[in-house]
Amino acid sequence: MYGRDPWGGALEINADSATDDDRSRNLQDFDRSALSRQLDETQQSWLLGPGEQKKKKYVDLGCIVCSRTVFKWIVISILLSGSIAGLVTLIVKLVPRHNNSAPPPDSYTKALHKALMFFNAQRSGPLPKHNNVSWRGNSGMRDGLSDPGAAHASLVGGFYDAGDAIKFNFPGAFAMTMLSWSVIEYSAKYEAAGELNHAKDIIKWGADYFLKTFNSSADTISLIHAQVGKGDTSTGPSNPNDHYCWMRPEDIDYPRPVYDCSSCSDLAAEMAAALAAASIVFKDNKLYSQKLVKGATTLFKFSRTQRGRYSPGGSDPSKFYNSTGYYDEYVWGGAWMYYATGNNSYLQLATTLGIAKHAGAFRGGQDYGVLSWDNKLAGAQVLLSRLRLFLSPGYPYEDVLQSYHNQTNIVMCSYLPAFRSFNRTRGGLIQLNHGRPQPLQYVVNAAFLAAVYSDYLTAADIPGWNCGPTFFSTEALRNFARTQINYILGKNPMKMSYLVGYGSHYPKHVHHRGASIPKNKIKYSCKGGWKWRDSPRPNPNVLVGAMVAGPDKRDMFHDVRTNYNYTEPTLAGNAGLVAALVSLSGGDTGGIDKNTMFSAVPPMFPTPPPPPAPWNP
Fold first, then answer.
1. Is 507:500 a contact under the CB 8 Å cutoff?
2. Catalytic: which of 41, 568, 588, 593?
């Protein structure tokens, strides 16, 4: 039987004589001869056994076809890369880490944390849970309602002024204005120190209280509740009050009279400045900011229509925070009202030549250049120099703005050691109050003015200023500010930190009722607390962050609780200290925020000056 080999050649099969083995051998012989020519891969796969099949040269991956060799090296590379990555990951996890943490805070930042805590200790009213002063509690919960002489609205809240429990609006408003100024200029530094929200919380606590002390929803008012509590002790034990008695604020049980004023331009303009400045701090909270502007507008209008000082002779305020005039508050308050509203009428008032002269802008004097709760002229001139440096509104404001700017330069010269406008102690403390007691509150304000003005010049790309023929760089101002604050923090002949809780050597007998009486569930009466006032022992409660009144003109300090000229802190003093500390914190980095102050000021389109008079030959 013959069959046909489909791939070529004859295939003979002998069915009769061949055995199965013979047939198998014959078939294999014929197969090999038939494969003497080259077969394609399909034919080979049909014919050859599994062990004899030829390996493919290419790999079909579905979407692509690649060489088997290339595919092999790709797989090897992937496996090798994965192994290396795994090894690196293992090494990174096993090797000890050295975190690049932020540098430690400088001395000014550390002191800033302390100084802000003082305001927590001075709070009146129901305390928030985050107040963090363990020995304080709710107090003054009947303020405004316990006045036996008249019926008032609730005046709960605010801050106690110093070591007593009186709430004075005049220095308190100045303190809030200074804090707001520092937050507006240095919010980034507050943020870096982790204290921005704390500072804003303090400002809001003060602003909310001021809104209670007059009809803040009205356009026109006729009086302000200027003070809660009484300090005059001339009537003796028959009339217990906040100075005669020595009690924890939480235990006060005597009546607290309210002092009202119906013609108080100085107080109203200062309160307007405080609310206006706070409105810029809270500009992102539109409703609250508008509420503050509304109140400030009402107050400033009142200051202009009801002329007079808030502290006439014989009044209780005149014995403690007597105001010497109100024209400086017109310039100061007018500047803040302009920044808060953008209304040119306020700028026009602040740059009115007659008002500037009445404020003492051009007459000098021994206290010229001293910023305080009483006289704000030096601060107002720096604040308006800012406007000239960055926006330059031109006519019709330029002449007076230029005068303010020139006077600011003169004030800055007077702070420098090269000039003799103010004496200095042997330890280097500038005597801005000419040797009188309680010097530090004036020193910290000057340090802040010097630092912030230095930052203004730097931001305006101005390297310095001239004092007569001598040029001084902006660094001279920062050096002045640093040396004065360093003195307060311990670099002085007494080696004493005048900031309580800062360093290891600070006053232990602070003139402060709450700090000097233990919180031991015993209520001490008006005179029963005198034993704590007169005790030679250190205060049982540390009044962290309080800047005391300071040393005398010989650099001497007496840590005696009964001598308030050395050991009593105040709101206004601490506000100036906070402002100076934040301006110096973080080294020379940061600088001011140029734009926030002008957030409500419209674009400037200066009015051209009038043409000159026609020439007559």
1. yes
2. 568
